[in-house]
Amino acid sequence: MNKFVLQVFLFLAFIPLAILIGYGVLVIAPIFCCFLAINSYKFNNYREMYIWMGFGVLSFLLALYMLGVL
User: Phi/psi of residue 44, each to 5°?
Assistant: First the structure.
């Protein structure tokens, strides 16, 4: 098989995998921010807690938008 054709086929095969990983990161990001906010709360660092809560809300809304809910 031609090497160029094989490389094009492999490149096209990785596009759905990249999309799947991207959506996985979008779904995991709000959960990760939630755990970081809980950890900040344990150490009485309220300013950092509110920052992580803000990032969590933004990533949650972005995830809902990208998944087609909003």
Answer: 55, 35
